[in-house]
Amino acid sequence: MRRLLLILALLASPALAVQPDEVLDDPVLESRARELSEGLRCLVCRNENIDESNADLARDLRLAVRERLVAGDTDDEVIAYLVDRYGEYVLLRPTVTGANLILWLAGPAMLLGGAGIAVIALRRRPEGKRRDDALTPEEQARLDTLLKE
What we know:
By secondary structure, the chain is mainly alpha-helical. The protein has a domain at 16-111: Orthogonal Bundle (Helicase, Ruva Protein, domain 3). 59% of the residues lie in helices and 0% in strands. Helix 3 (56-70) packs antiparallel against helix 4. Residues 1-17 form the signal peptide. Residues 6-147 form the CcmH/CycL/Ccl2/NrfF N-terminal domain. One of its GO terms (molecular function) is metal ion binding. Belongs to the CcmH/CycL/Ccl2/NrfF family.
């Protein structure tokens, strides 16, 4: 039973595509590389980070991250290098500045605008006949004859 649970746990865990020849000897640098890789998108696989992707371009990106770290770059410099080279699309979490700010704010603004329009439309609609209005005697007589039939 324990073996089965172990096998299921291994199958359910995300498969990392990092090859043994890519792993840095310095555990601190390797840890930094893994943290950076979590936020970098594989340009082939779309919404998969480069550590989980088997694509050749993802391998190139992993190697570039490790090369920059070994060269002494800070985490921000490594990210800036990759963004300069591949564009902001390489980031799984885009920045909230510049033109992206419009995209970040457009959704909530449209939601609030739609809610405002709905409130105004509901307040301006004409009131119909209320349910508590009594029937006229003619209407009541007609209803009674219809119900008897």
